[in-house]
């Protein structure tokens, strides 16, 4: 039997069988020994044997993991020079889209976080979608201006707005949602999947027990009125507050900044693109108005945090870096 892993909890994997309807029971499985050290994560397509009836107490075994079409990874820290920094985790397998949820106000948008997510998305070969919430509180102009050079798809969310545009972007695909605490991600998940019942306004899981649902969960989207076909799946990732990028090479980091790529064509071979490299073409590129200087600053901040030079947590940026303030 083929299964799709929708949740992982202490060595037990919850799977759904493709073709089984939304009301079919889920199958609980454990890993078979023959899998060795290979980890099974949410989004994996697996081969199941044993009792796949989904009856209470039934336990199936995962004997095979299908080749993954994409792998979203994160590292605990950014610093590629330390063992802790290199500790790499697969967050989700086989996602098609990374939905970066950012509030337009309360909390204000952090383009440093969004840039980090974009690097992770391009690195994983997952399409990004910018989901700007709390559009009732502030306009999107400053954020959109910052990303003007990128063809970054986006949707705006207000409390009373229809979610049709978002639903059509989610249809038929597996989308992972990431966002900082308080941006309205749980509110959005509950609107998209009313039966999900995700906790809203819980402030943050930080400081609580580690077991307070910090692992990823895949939720089946309900059929949308007037639309046929698979409505898709969303994967909520309550535990992912940031993406450490130590596993991403300096060159791959640049893929998160497509507006800067052309500016490196005249760089010397093996240019580190750092501010202390006088021959780096990026300074001239920005000086010539070909890209926004804030974009280069953000790229170099990520480069530096990877090299262990600055704030290794890479959490929010220093004040004044917000769009429209730089
Ligand atoms: N004005 C406004 N407030 C919103 C909107 N969406 C969510 N909120 C409020 O923002 C607060 C945080 O929302 P949550 O959904 O809990 O945010 P979260 O991103 O899930 O954060 P955690 O619960 O910490 O994971 C709540 O008080 C929501 O009612 C919105 O579109 N507009
Ligand atoms: Zn360079």
From TrEMBL:
Q: Where is the composition biased (Basic and acidic residues)?
A: 308-326
Q: Where along the chain is GTP bound?
A: 133-136, 179-187
Q: What is its EC number?
A: 3.6.1.-
Residues covered by region (Disordered): 302-326
Q: What class of enzyme is it?
A: hydrolase
Which terms are listed as keywords in the entry? Cytoplasm, GTP-binding, Hydrolase, Metal-binding, Nucleotide-binding, Ribosome biogenesis, RNA-binding, rRNA-binding, Zinc
Q: How is the cofactor bound?
A: Binds 1 zinc ion per subunit.
Is-annotated flag, keyword Transferase? Answer: no
Primary location group: cytoplasm
EngC GTPase domain residues are 93-241
Q: Which residues bind Zn(2+)?
A: 267, 271, 273, 280
**Known InterPro entries for this protein?**
G_CP_dom (IPR030378), P-loop_NTPase (IPR027417), Ribosome_biogen_GTPase_RsgA (IPR004881), RsgA_GTPase_dom (IPR010914)
Please list the cofactors this protein needs: Zn(2+)
Alphabetical list of NCBIfam families matching this protein: ribosome small subunit-dependent GTPase A (TIGR00157)
Could you give the subunit structure recorded for this chain?
Monomer. Associates with 30S ribosomal subunit, binds 16S rRNA.
Q: What is this protein called?
A: Small ribosomal subunit biogenesis GTPase RsgA
User: Upper taxonomic classification of the species?
Assistant: Bacteria, Bacillati, Actinomycetota, Actinomycetes, Micromonosporales
């Amino acid at each position: 039997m083929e299964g799709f892993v929708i949740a992982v909890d202490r060595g037990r994997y919850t799977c759904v069988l493709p073709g089984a309807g939304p009301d079919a029971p889920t199958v609980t499985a454990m890993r078979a020994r023959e899998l060795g050290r290979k980890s099974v994560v949410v989004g994996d397509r697996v081969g199941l044997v044993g009792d796949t009836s989904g009856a209470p107490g039934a336990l199936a075994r995962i004997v095979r993991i299908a080749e993954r079409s994409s792998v979203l990874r994160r590292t605990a820290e950014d610093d590629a020079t330390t063992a802790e920094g290199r500790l790499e985790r697969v967050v989700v397998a086989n996602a098609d889209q990374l939905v970066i949820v950012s509030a337009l106000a309360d909390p204000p948008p952090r383009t440093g976080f969004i840039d980090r997510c974009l690097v992770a998305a391009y690195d994983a070969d997952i399409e990004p979608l910018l989901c700007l919430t709390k559009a009732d509180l502030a306009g999107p102009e400053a954020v959109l201006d910052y990303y003007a050079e990128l063809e970054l798809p986006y949707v705006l969310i207000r409390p009373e707005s229809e979610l049709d545009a978002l639903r059509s972007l989610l249809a038929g695909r597996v989308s992972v949602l990431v966002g900082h605490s308080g941006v309205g991600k749980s509110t959005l998940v509950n609107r998209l999947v009313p039966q999900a019942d995700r906790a809203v306004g819980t402030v943050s899981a930080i400081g609580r027990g580690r077991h307070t649902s910090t692992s990823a969960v895949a939720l089946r989207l309900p059929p949308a009125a007037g639309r046929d076909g698979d409505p898709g799946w969303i994967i909520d990732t309550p535990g992912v507050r940031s993406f450490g990028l130590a596993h991403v090479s300096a060159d791959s980091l640049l893929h998160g900044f497509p507006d800067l790529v052309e500016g490196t064509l005249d760089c010397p071979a093996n240019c580190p693109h750092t501010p202390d490299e006088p021959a780096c073409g990026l300074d001239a590129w920005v000086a010539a108005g070909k890209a926004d200087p804030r974009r280069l600053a953000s790229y170099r901040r990520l480069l530096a945090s990877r090299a262990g030079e600055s704030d290794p947590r890479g959490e929010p940026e220093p004040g004044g870096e917000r769009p429209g303030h730089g």
